[in-house]
Amino acid sequence: MNIRYMRYFVVLAELQHFSRTADKLNVTQPSLTRGIQRLEQLVGGKLFDRDSKNIAITKLGLLVLVHCQQILQQDDALQKDLDLFHGVNQLEIKIGASPIPSNSIVGPIMGQFLHAFPSMSVDLRVTHWEDLSQQLLQGELDLFVAETRSTDLAQNQLFTTIDMAPFRVIFCARPSHPLAQLPRLFLPSFRDYPLAVPRHLPCKVAEQFEDLFMLARDDFAGLVRFDQFHAIKGAMFDSDLIALTPEIAVREELKRGTLIRLVPQSMPEFEARFSVVSLAGCQVSQSINTFTRFLLQRVDMLSLETELV
């Protein structure tokens, strides 16, 4: 099959509009139509039902679409690896990160990286690790940074992971929080106050706190599930909200004293371990190697600061 016709088909399936598809592919509409017709002849049936105004993909089209997407991803990956092998300059890197490392680890090295590669463009995408892993598999990312100890990323043979130094996970609140005034603190006391936890808190972590983060408990006092911790951090300064988060997310606030760490007796000890995740077996460019080195240096520096505190 012709790769060009498959690309026509995949884009048309996405946009469902001949004129917009032709514009995006920079081809004429007659060329696009001939390409789709030729592909339909090769697969033995109609890929789209179409009238004067609308088009809709057929059942056969859905079947063919899955395979065409996979073939095009492999073709793009091959072309990328060939470019790397032959030393073709890379103009853009595509980086993903879950919210906390995006703010604390990835963002702060951008200036350093662009100083080393001033002609490089960086596409930074921030979402949770499940989305990032799918984007990486689909060829939409070169690498991403996310928590791997509490996920299955490190065990997935499709990925290569480079572990970073861990950061402890803590409870934090405003300095004038009622719990901060107690001489000794116990986890059951947290049940009387609203809590904030990551939306994608791994089950194995949540289970260590029994039903503390469950909506159905009898003494429920409010719960915020967040994707972006930065979005709820401001609410903690003038409320009784208590947040569970990696220490790195609130380090500056802890230094300034605008937030404090709450340390209950018998607090389950666990750490967030972020890793650099990339596709196994893929060629890696100099720019990606350099970006990874800057990430590791950033984490080493942050870890050293933790030891000095």
Automatic annotation (TrEMBL):
Residues spanning the membrane = none
Q: Indicate whether Amino-acid biosynthesis appears among the record's keywords.
A: no
Which PROSITE patterns does this UniProt record tie to the protein?
HTH_LYSR
Q: What family name appears in the similarity comment?
A: Belongs to the LysR transcriptional regulatory family.
Superkingdom of this entry's organism?
Bacteria
What is the protein's species of origin?
Shewanella colwelliana
Q: Which Pfam families match?
A: HTH_1 (PF00126), LysR_substrate (PF03466)
**Listed name of the protein:** LysR family transcriptional regulator
Q: Which residues form the HTH lysR-type domain?
A: 1-58
Alphabetical keyword list: DNA-binding, Transcription, Transcription regulation
The cross-references to CDD domains, in alphabetical order and at most eight, read:
PBP2_LTTR_substrate
Q: Which Gene3D superfamilies match?
A: 3.40.190.290, Winged helix-like DNA-binding domain superfamily/Winged helix DNA-binding domain
InterPro entries for the chain? LysR_HTH_N, LysR_subst-bd, WH-like_DNA-bd_sf, WH_DNA-bd_sf
